[in-house]
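[step 3/7] fold_predict: job queued, chain A
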Amino acid sequence: MSAIKKDYKRITTKSLIEMKSNGEKISMLTAYDYTMAKIVDTAGIDVILVGDSASNVMAGHETTLPITLDQMIYHASSVVRAVERALVVVDLPFGSYQSDSKEALRSSIRIMKESGGHAVKLEGGKEIKESIKKILNAGIPVMGHLGLTPQSIYKFGTYTVRAKEEEEAEKLIEDAKLLEQLGCFALVLEKIPAHLAQKVAESISIPVIGIGAGGGVDGQVLVIHDMLGMNNEFSPRFLRRYMNLYEGMTSAISQYVEDVKSKDFPNEKEQY
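[step 4/7] structure written:
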């Protein structure tokens, strides 16, 4: 059965649920600044994630843990100003929601008011149930995130595939159903076995977006810097590079340096 593709002028949380029911896959990419978000939105992406991965690709940190709420709001506000069609989801950073549901609500309200984002994303299941309930009760849409949750990297000790064992797989399915029951509008599954991800997607009515979770889910998300090949150090199995910008940009900049040094730039046509 072929998917029914509807032309959405503006993507909302309701749009994504419609897309799942119509069998249309959901496209999602990260963006962290105005210029990149403008390009991504114009290209027709459905969801832009202002991810805490900005901690890695924008600031050079080893993990997502150091990025602050203020920094996430800065990145998100830059993205929102560029976007006309996509739904903008903003990660709640580490430490802004885990320990206290009231703090989770305050953090979410700040993101919505100060950045203009459309929804927030949180990592975890049952353990953050109260935080999710409080945020949803305030009318703020929530996207869940299960599987490999990078904010818990020191608990896991590695970025390896999650939920390969039966006990962890069962907990993941239970958590996915709980997130749906609580009222989350969608769920990200990161780096889990493809058969498990498909089982989750088929067992809940909300969209499931995968990253390293196979093709049996309702959509896919990648980090923009990875899929455009802006870095050449990160090469997991799930990553498809659509360009090699690292090589192209390095070549262009090297040529610029050479042209400046040789006095070829600027030429007579490039000055007043």
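[step 5/7] annotate
The CA atoms of residues 162 and 192 lie 5 Å apart.
Strands lie at 26-30, 47-50, 87-91, 119-121, 142-147, 186-190, 208-211, 219-222.
exit 0
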